[in-house]
Structures are given as structure tokens and as C-alpha cells.
């Protein structure tokens, strides 16, 4: 019998054999998903339009994919579902525009909250931390989900526009987008995957994986990425790169005078406009504005044959272990800086009511 493994399956097996078995063999999935995943796939879809220069507006594609998405094979309306769990850093009030704030005010009043938007979201976030998302009262869930979704939507739009400005000019030729690769190990097992992009980047044919992340990638992350190395081998392309869109928006806050239009110096602490007009201090009220920027890093590497052999040998071994039914627990991966393993409760508390079979 031969086995078919994707890059993410290999990754999962190496994180924890039992998590692999629950996910791929028993097909158990968390009922909820993360805002990061929904955002990532909506951005991927939009970037494909940017790269292929189709007639579709990338932002429209993003809007649609971010609004309606499938969670465990069921389509959901993302702004209102409680099946998406957001991370602490997702919410950033400063990014909301007037329409967003009006929408939130409206829902807030409907639900009967006397506090302001920020206070409600903070309270919901504290309830989530203290009791877990599933135990948060529905009306708090509703406000918290919408507020976070609106922020991520703004971040997504900023990221797509930043990609257009910063990355698209560096790409002179696109060979393929979302190309499927398939490799065969000596035991005739298959390794499959989808390559985000193969393109001339700064004039060099490169295998590219677009990532959205809230942290910076290490300089050597591309050179030791099993994913990029597998793709490099499959396509016979030596140059690889991660393009990392940082989700932490750089806001460049500025204060502009509502009376004379004067722009305060960076870091100014004046409470009112300090501009002098005809020898008199203006003292107009400030309007706080942001000039948001997205940091995009390109992390490049060249892959040699030794690295390819290392990764391919490893993949072949994993395939062989899976075929023998060997699924070893990695108890060090239950709780990491990225959060809890989806199967944490199943393993440690013998409870699986947060899981469903797909
Ligand atoms: Zn002024």
C-alpha cells in the first residue's frame, strides 16, 4: 500500500504523531477555527489576482472570501459566527474607519451595552481569557467577533495594497500560481503540495511562499524550511523565498489641527495646536490620524542537493512510520507559544466535545 502526504501532513506528524492520527486518520477537527487562518486564505486568493493580473479586483476577491468562508465544510458568515476565535493582537481600534465604528455602535446599542466600544471589546476579551471562548455570553461574543473581524478586514486590505506596492514591482515574470506538485519516494509513496508562486523575483526564478505573520521570520528560515526545500526539489528550482507580510500594522500616528491644518511634529505632546498664526498660538483641537504601513520582508535562500536529500529522507521515513501505524505522542507540543494543540482536551481531559468529525 502506498501513502499520500501533503507538506502540512508531514509537518503535523513531526509536531505530534497522535495529533496527525486524530487529524488525518480519524478526521477530527476543532469546531472553531482561527481568524488568522480565514484571513490568510482570503489574502492568498487576493494575491493570486494581483500576481496573475486578472480582471478581478483583488480587494473584491478578498472581501468576498473573508466574509463567507467554509469552516469544517460548512459555509459561515464570518462577521457574525462564533466559530472563529481571534487572537489578542487582532483587535486594533485605530484601524477602524467611520463606517466600521458606526456599525459597531449600532450593534452595541441593539445589544444594550452602555459602555463604549473599546470597553465592551476589552471586557469580552477578559471573559474569553478567564472562562474560555465557548463560555463567553453570546452578546459579548457578537460584539467581540464583529470588532475583531472589522480590524482584520482593514489589515487584510492594507496588506494586499502593500503587496501591490512593495512586491509586485520586483516580480517580472510569473511562471505559475498555486501549482500542484507531486513527488514519489523510493517506496512509491507520494508527497503533494501547492506552491504559492513561481516567478522571477529580482530577476531570478524563485519558488515563493507568501506568509502572513505577527512575528518576523529568522534570516535562515527559508534555507531550513522543509516546505520550500520539497518544492525546490519537485520543480528543480534552486532559489526559494518566503514573503512575510507582518500583521502588526505600523500606524504612524499624527495629529493634525482641525483649525489651521498644522501637522504636529512626531511625538509632540501639546494638547492643543501649537502653531503660531499671526503671532498668536492657534490652540485648535487636534484630530488624530494614522498613516498605516505594512512591513513586508523577503527571506531568500538557495537550496543545495544535501538539504533536499535530508528533507526527502525524512519524508520517506515519516511515510514508512505512518504505514506501520506508529503514532507517537509529543507531549512537548500540547501547549506552545502558539497556543493549545486542538487535541489538548482530548488527550489530557478525555473530553472531545470541542471536536467534530469531518
Ligand atoms: Zn492650528
Structural description of this entry:
It is a single chain. This protein has about 350 residues and is of the alpha+beta class. Among the domains are: about 30-165, no CATH class; about 255-290. Helices cover about 40% and strands about 25% of the residues. It is built from ten helices and 18 strands. The strands form seven sheets. Strands 1, 7, 8, 9, 10 and 15 form a six-stranded mixed β-sheet that branches. Helix 5 (about 100-110) packs antiparallel against helix 7. The longest helix has 29 residues, at about 140-165. The two termini are about 25 Å apart. Zinc ion binds near residues 260, 262, 273, 275 and 284. Zinc ion (ZN) binds near residues 257, 259, 260 and 262.
The total of helices stands at: 10
Poorly predicted segments:
none
Determine the N-to-C terminus distance. 24 Å
The run of helices and strands is EHHEEHHEEEHHHEEEHEEEEEEHEEHE
Helix content: 25-40%
* Computed CA radius of gyration, to the nearest angstrom: 24 Å
Q: What's the rounded overall pLDDT mean?
A: 95
| Largest sheet entry | 6 strands, mixed
**Helix-and-strand structural type:** alpha+beta
Share in β-strands: 25-35%
- Large-scale geometry: globular
Bound molecules: zinc ion
| Oligomeric assembly | single chain
Beta strands, count: 18
Highlighted features:
single chain, alpha+beta, two-stranded antiparallel ribbon, 25% strand, binds zinc ion
Amino acid at each position: 500500500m502506498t501513502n499520500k502526504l501533503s507538506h502540512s501532513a508531514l509537518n503535523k506528524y513531526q509536531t505530534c504523531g497522535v495529533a496527525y492520527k486524530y487529524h488525518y486518520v480519524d478526521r477530527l477537527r476543532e469546531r472553531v477555527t482561527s481568524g488568522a487562518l480565514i484571513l490568510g486564505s482570503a489574502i492568498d486568493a487576493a494575491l493570486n489576482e494581483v500576481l496573475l493580473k486578472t480582471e478581478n479586483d483583488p480587494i473584491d476577491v478578498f472581501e468576498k472570501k473573508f466574509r463567507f468562508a467554509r469552516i469544517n465544510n460548512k459555509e459561515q458568515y464570518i462577521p457574525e459566527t462564533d466559530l472563529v476565535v481571534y487572537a489578542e493582537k487582532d483587535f486594533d481600534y485605530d484601524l477602524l474607519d467611520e463606517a466600521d465604528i458606526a456599525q459597531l455602535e449600532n450593534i452595541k446599542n441593539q445589544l444594550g451595552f452602555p459602555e463604549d466600544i473599546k470597553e465592551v471589546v476589552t471586557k469580552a476579551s477578559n471573559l474569553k481569557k478567564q472562562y474560555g471562548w465557548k463560555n463567553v455570553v453570546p452578546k459579548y461574543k457578537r460584539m467581540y467577533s464583529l470588532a475583531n473581524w472589522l480590524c482584520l478586514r482593514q489589515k487584510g486590505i492594507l496588506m494586499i495594497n502593500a503587496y501591490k506596492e512593495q512586491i509586485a514591482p520586483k516580480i517580472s515574470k510569473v511562471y505559475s500560481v498555486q501549482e500542484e506538485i507531486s513527488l514519489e519516494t523510493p517506496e512509491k509513496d507520494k508527497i503533494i503540495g501547492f506552491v504559492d508562486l513561481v516567478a522571477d523575483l529580482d530577476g531570478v526564478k524563485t519558488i515563493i511562499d507568501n506568509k502572513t505573520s505577527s512575528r518576523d521570520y529568522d534570516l535562515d528560515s527559508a534555507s531550513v524550511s522543509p516546505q520550500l526545500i520539497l518544492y525546490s526539489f519537485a520543480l528543480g528550482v534552486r532559489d526559494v523565498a518566503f514573503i512575510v507580510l507582518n500583521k502588526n500594522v505600523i500606524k504612524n500616528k499624527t495629529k493634525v489641527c482641525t483649525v489651521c491644518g498644522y501637522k504636529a511634529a512626531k511625538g509632540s505632546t501639546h494638547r492643543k495646536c501649537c502653531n503660531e498664526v499671526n503671532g498668536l498660538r492657534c490652540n485648535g483641537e487636534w484630530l488624530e490620524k494614522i498613516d498605516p504601513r505594512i512591513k513586508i520582508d523577503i527571506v531568500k535562500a538557495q537550496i543545495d542537493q544535501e538539504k533536499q536529500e535530508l528533507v526527502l529522507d525524512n519524508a520517506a521515513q515519516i511515510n514508512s512510520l505512518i504505514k506501520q501505524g506508529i503514532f507517537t505522542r509529543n507531549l512537548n507540543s500540547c501547549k506552545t507559544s502558539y497556543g493549545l494543540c486542538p487535541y489538548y482536551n482530548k488527550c489530557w481531559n478525555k473530553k472531545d466535545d470541542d471536536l467534530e468529525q469531518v
